[in-house]
Amino acid sequence: MSDIRDIGWEERIEGHAFPMRLQKYLARAGVASRRGSESLITAGRVEVNGIVVTELGSKVDPLEDEVAVDGVVVVWGSSHVVLALNKPSGIITTMKDYRGRRCVADIMPCDEYPGLYPIGRLDKDTTGLLLFTTDGELGNGLLHPSHHVTKVYHATVTGIMTEAEAQQLREGVLLEDGMTAPAEISVISKSRNRCVVELAIHEGRKHQVKRMCKAVGHPVEHLDRVSFGPIETGSLKQGVWRKLDDEETAALYRAAGLA
Ligand code: URA
What we know:
The chain is of the alpha+beta class. The protein folds into 3 domains: 5-73, Structural Genomics Hypothetical 15.5 Kd Protein In mrcA-pckA Intergenic Region, Chain A (Roll); 82-145 and 231-255, 2-Layer Sandwich (Alpha-Beta Plaits), CATH 3.30.70; 150-228, Alpha-L RNA-binding motif (Alpha-Beta Plaits, 2-Layer Sandwich), CATH 3.30.70.1560. Helices cover 22% and strands 29% of the residues. The chain has helices at 2-6, 22-28, 34-42, 136-143, 163-171, 208-215, 246-255; strands at 12-13, 16-17, 20-21, 46-48, 51-52, 59-60, 67-69, 72-73, 82-87, 117-118, 127-133, 151-158, 174-175, 178-179, 184-190, 194-201, 220-228, 231-232, 241-243. The strands form 5 sheets. Strands 9, 10, 11, 12, 15, 16, 17, 18 and 19 form a 9-stranded mixed beta sheet that branches. Strands 5-4-7-8 form a 4-stranded antiparallel beta sheet. Helix 2 packs across helix 3. The radius of gyration is 22 Å and the shape is elongated. Bound molecules: uracil. Residues 122-123, 126, 207-210, 223 line the site of uracil. GO terms for molecular function: RNA binding; rRNA pseudouridine synthase activity. Belongs to the pseudouridine synthase RsuA family. One of its GO terms (biological process) is enzyme-directed rRNA pseudouridine synthesis. Residues 20-87 form the RNA-binding S4 domain. This is Pseudouridine synthase.
């Protein structure tokens, strides 16, 4: 017990902060939403170590304390989560910005999921799917080049990309940091002086899609990520996040080589 308590409030073990507020504990254990958990507490339905607790500020240590709801003991299993955000433009991919710029932490439920961090980055002006997790092993696995996790982007570019230019991108183009790996490229819509190109790549170099399109003469005007491995943005609205369900989470672990 002392080793856990000694590390203090801000310290973390495997992404969990100890001790944590009772309503956060209940929400993270999947008993109810944070609001629902607060109602359970104030209704006197929650016991900690056999004593009814109605104080919302009460803290528990998930490894030491026994919490029960309506007399049923709550099981604290692996509470790692994966969340998907449809990132809006104008937001930087960092959990803290010392210059006060808007960052993804302003949108994500960092309080509810201590240790949450983004899996990779999207540029400030890029929109679309950005995944977050509390599981460092999952994040590392998904970003590791050996796992070839495919990311699909829709790039609105200036001018109409020809088939020959698309073929160059498929085969690889030379950027300042070397040749790009083979990619799947298709022009999915055209207007008079711009077109939308779908690019499926598995590398994750800085500004990669923008640099690839520019290398064949088509600067990117707008970039949107529509999928990351098995997960798609789908109908998720910009600026909104959701928790992945068990099936989606399992598919991501498989993609990361952590079946
Ligand atoms: N490639 C880019 O150029 N920018 C992004 O945000 C993501 C991929």
